[in-house]
Write a structure and sequence with these properties.
2 helices, about 140 residues, globular, three-stranded mixed beta sheet, mainly beta, two-stranded antiparallel ribbon
Length: about 140
């Protein structure tokens, strides 16, 4: 009997776009979803996690006439304001972000946040040992 020989050929392809995230390819809707979806209850902002409302209809969002996001005010949310936020996904058009009286927490010295003021001025390492409420003023800079 004659044997049949089969050859399998594999092609290697290269795509420069694979492996590198380019935020300019995302809509403002997608960027804001990435920004808030680390929250424990993003539904408090966007309506439904599986099918979010149009971003310009979200609670606290203000869009301009071109439907670019300019402002996000998210204040006095208390326990609804827990979780993590993806600050790196904020749209470039955003001019104002106000978030206060929430239950968000993090180490402000990691990442792109920096402490710019306190209600009292303890040494940074001692801040975690304070028993009285402390207000920390943070400055955020966009990563380059």
């Amino acid at each position: 009997m004659l044997s049949k020989l089969y050859a399998v050929v594999y092609f290697a392809c290269a795509d420069d776009g694979i492996g590198r995230f380019d935020r300019s390819m995302l809509s403002q809707q997608e960027l804001m979803e990435l920004f808030i979806f680390g929250l424990n209850e993003p539904e408090e902002v966007c309506g439904n996690r599986d099918d979010p409302d149009d971003v310009c209809e979200w609670k606290g969002i203000t869009c301009n006439a071109d439907r670019d996001i300019e402002k996000f005010l998210w204040i006095i949310k208390n326990d609804d304001g827990t979780g993590t936020l993806g600050f790196e996904f904020l749209p470039w058009s955003m001019k104002r972000l106000q978030m206060w009286r929430n239950a968000l927490s993090a180490n402000p010295t990691k990442g792109h946040l920096s402490v710019v003021g306190w209600t009292s001025t303890p040494v940074l390492g001692e801040a975690k040992n304070l028993l009285k409420p402390l207000v920390v003023f943070l400055s955020w800079r966009r990563p380059y």
